[in-house]
Write a structure and sequence with these properties.
By secondary structure, the chain is mainly beta. It is built from 1 helix and 18 strands.
């Protein structure tokens, strides 16, 4: 389970450092072959061939993007806007699952979501869009959270999904790879724009 680090085609790509090949028999979960692209997180099951290529029996799409925030504007056209205006627009579709952990509304779905509701969203990028795989309504939190691919960075800030994340001397830094506490300079030095995934929590 890792990000797609090299993408030549839907049948030829690398997951982490492992070369993967798909076939007409490959089964896709939470997406289709057309959703495969660089920086998409997937879990692949299959067998290694004589060339040490993993021939995929199953490709399961994993959420690269996580958002915990309030809905900024009235939901419309299967789209939820969070983290201010213009904020991050998240689209839902027939594969999106909905759950209400706040009011336990039966049959909870897109039509039950209102401006101001606090949501936890798991999503995947698809081209220039963000497609939700799971939407949960939860109790409002003091902090918001955002996880995704870092599109740009400086020595003290980074941009995720168009949202600028500023840090300071009081910010705590931790590596997702080894759970080690990093300094600010170590954290930003380890980031590669367009490839690294980071998570930020704050106000």
């Amino acid at each position: 389970e890792n990000l797609i680090t090299r993408f030549a085609s839907a049948s030829d790509f690398d997951v982490g450092t492992q070369k993967v090949q798909t076939t007409g028999s490959t089964v896709y979960e939470n997406g289709t072959a057309s959703n495969l692209a660089a920086n998409i997180k997937v879990k692949v099951k299959g067998k290694l061939n004589s060339s040490n290529v993993l021939v995929a029996d199953l490709v399961s799409f994993r959420p690269t993007i996580e958002i915990e925030a309030s809905v900024s504007t009235t939901p419309t056209s299967n789209t939820l806007t969070l983290l201010g205006t213009p904020g991050v627009a998240v689209k839902t579709n027939s594969l999106t699952t909905f759950k209400d952990n706040r009011d336990s509304v039966p049959g909870f779905g897109f039509g039950n979501i209102a401006q101001g509701d606090f949501l936890k969203i798991l999503a995947q990028p698809s081209g220039n869009e963000v497609i939700a795989t799971r939407v949960e309504r939860i109790q409002a939190q003091n902090d918001v959270e955002l996880r995704g691919v870092v599109s740009s960075k400086t020595t003290t800030s980074m941009t995720i999904l168009g949202i600028s994340v500023q840090t300071s001397g009081a910010t705590q830094f931790e590596s997702e790879l080894d759970s080690q506490v990093d300094t600010q300079s170590e954290f930003f030095a380890a980031l590669t724009a367009g490839q690294s995934v980071a998570k930020a929590s704050g106000t």
